# Entry
Amino acid sequence: MINHDDYVKINIGPSHPAMHGTLRVVAYTDGETVVSADPEIGYLHRGVEKLGEHLSYHQFIPITDRLNYCSAICNNVSYEMAVEKLLGVSAPEKAQLVRVIMMELARIADHQVCVGILGVDLGAFTPFFYLIIQREEIYEIFEHYNGARLTNTFGRIGGVEADLPKDFEQRWKKLKEGIARANEETDKLLTHNRIWMDRTIGVTTFSAEDALAWGFTGPCLRACGVKRDLRKDEPYSVYDRFDFEVPVGKYGDVFDRYMVRMREMEESVKIIDQAFKLYKDMPADAPLMAKVPKTIKPPAGEVYSAIESPNGELGFFIKSDGSDKPYRIKIRPPCYMVYQAFPEMVKGEMIADLIACLSSLNVIAGELDR
Amino acid sequence: MNDLIIALIKVVFIWVWVLLIAVVMTWVERRGAAMIQDRPGPNRAGPFGLLQPLADGIKLFTKEDIIPAKAKKLLFILGPILFSLPAFSAYAVVPFGDKIVLGGKEIILQVADVNIGFLYIVALGSMAVYGIVVGGWASNNKYSILGGLRATAQLISYEVPWGLALLAIVLVYGTFSLREIALAQQGTFLGILPNWGVFKQPLGFILFIVAAYAEANRVPFDLPEAESEIVSGYHTEYGSMRLGVYLFGEYVNLCTLSALIVTFFFGAWHLPYINMASFLGPISYGIASFLVFFLKVSFFLWLFVWVRWTVPRFRYDQVMGLGWKALIPLGLLNLFLTALAIQLTA
# Structure
C-alpha cells in the first residue's frame, strides 16, 4: 500500500486529449514515474444490458452499434448470431459470406483507427491520416450497403438485408491497393523508426500466463504469444473455409500489440478476397434470410455465443423466458478484461508509457461501460 | 546621427521581417502538414489559405483573456513575454546578408556586429527557458508544471552540446563574431569543398541541429507541450493572445535557430564556388546576399516542419539519455578532435 500523500495526483481524463472516449485514470506520480494508476469507469454507462430487457429482439440490434463503435458490424453480427443460436436457425450461406466480408472490413477499420491513434499518442501524427483516408473508403462501402457509416445496424436476425452493392468488386479492388499502400507507408514511418522502437519495445510487457489469468482475448492476448483466435479455434459462421494466419507476438509489449494489429489487417484482406470469390460463385437469387417468424419468440432457455471481434472475444449471453423480449442480456466486452490489468501494466512506468499502453490496448469506452 | 537612423531602420526592418516570417510560418506549417498528410489544409481564407494567419490572429485577439483564479497573476502575464523576447533579441547579432552600399556609405546587413556575438546567443538561448517555467509555474496546473519541469531539464541539458558544437566552430574560425564567422566561409578548402562549417565540422553540425530541435521544443523533442500526455504542457491554461504570443515566440525561435544554422554551418550568404561580390554591383550584391541567406533559412524552416510531421516523440528519460550519454560526450570528442587538428595543422 502506498502513501498517496507522498505523490502528485494527476487526473487523466475523462476529458483529456489522450483519452479515447470518456475514460478516466487517476494516477499518482513521482515526477514522471507512475506509482499507481486507478482506472475509473462508468462515464459512458447507458444501461445497454438493461435496455435490452425492454426491447424486442430486433429492436436491440441498433443498441449493439453503440458498443464498440469503431466496428459496429461485428457487434451486430455477434448479437444476431446469439439470437439465431437461441432460435435454432442459421443464416443461409450467402448471408454468411456477406457477414464475413463486412465483419472483416470492420476489423480493418477498427485496427486502422487503433494503430493510427497509437501513433498520434506517441507524437507521430502523419500515419493516422494515411490510415484514416482508407477507413473512409471502407465507410463508403458500408454507406453503399445500407446507408449508415459508423453505426451500421447491419444484418437481420436470420440473415442479412441485401446483397453486396453492385460496385463492390471495383471498390474492393481500389480499397485493397489503398490499404496495402497505407500499411506500407505506416510501416516505413513507424515500424523500423528508431524513436518508435524505443518508445514501444519493452514498454508494458505482459506475460502469457498473466494475460490468460486476467482473461485477455484478441490482439492483446496474441501479442503475449498465445495463439488463440475464435475464428480458427472455434470456427463460427463460415470461417473454417478460409485460409489465413493468426499473427502472434512474443513479449506482449506495445510494439507486439501494434505489430499484431498490422499483420491482422493483411490477413483480413486475404479473408475478404476468399470470401468474395465464394460469394461470386453463388447464384444471384440465393436466399439471404433464413425462415424466421416476424415476431421473434425464442423458446425459454439461455445461450452464450461469441465471435472474435477486432478487440477480442465479444460474447452475448441471452436468457429467454419465451416472451418477445429477452429476459436478460449480458455482454462480454473484450476490453473490460483487458482494462482490468491496466494498473498492473503501467505501475512503475512513465506517464508517456501510460498513454502508449492505453492506446495499444484499444479500450473503447462504449464497449467498456455499456 | 546618420548611423543612429541607419541602426533604427535596421532594427525595425529585422523586427518586421522576423514577424513576417513567423506569420508565414504558421501558414507553411499547416499547409506543409496537410501536404505531407494527403489533405487540403486551410484553403478558405484568401488564395491558398494565405490569409489564415490573419484570421487566426483576429480570433486570438478578440477572445476573452482569462487568468485562472488561483494563478500567480504577475508571473502569468510575464511568462509569454519572457518567452518571446529572447527569441527576438537573439536575432540582433545574426547577420541577414553581407553589406550594401547606399550613397557611398557601406551598411552592414546586421543589426549589431558584436565581437562576442557567440556568447550573446548562448546567453539569450538560456533565457527562453524562464518563459516556459514561469508560465508553467504561474498557471497553478499540474500539467503545466510537468511541462515546465520537462522544459527546464530539456533546455538545460541541450544547452551543453549546443554550446560545445559552437565552441568547435569558434576554434575553427578563430572569432566570436558572427559576421566574421560568416565572412570566413567564403571560398574553398582542400581544393573542392566549400569553406562551410558543415564540411569542416560535420559532427558539430549534427550535434548542433539536434540540440537546436530540442531548444525549439519541436518534435521529436516536443515533450514540454506533448499534447497527448500533458494536454498542452506549460501553456495549458493560456488562452487568447497570451497563447498567441507563446505560439508566435516558437516560430520566431525557429527563425532565429535556422538563421544560426545557416550562419555557422551553411556559409551564411555565400554561394559555393561563386563569388557574387566579384560581378554584382554594390546594391544588387547586397540584395542578392540577403536573398541567398533567406533561401537557406527557408530550407531549414521547412526542415523543421518536415521533421515535425514525420517522426514520433521521445520519452522524457530518452531525451535526457540522448543529451547526457550521447550528445555531450560526442560534443567533447568533437571539441578535442578539432583542437587537435588545429594544433597539428597550425
In short: The longest strand of chain A covers residues 301-309. The mean pLDDT of chain A is 88. Residues 213 and 229 of chain A are 17 Å apart (CA to CA). Chain A has one domain: 4-369.
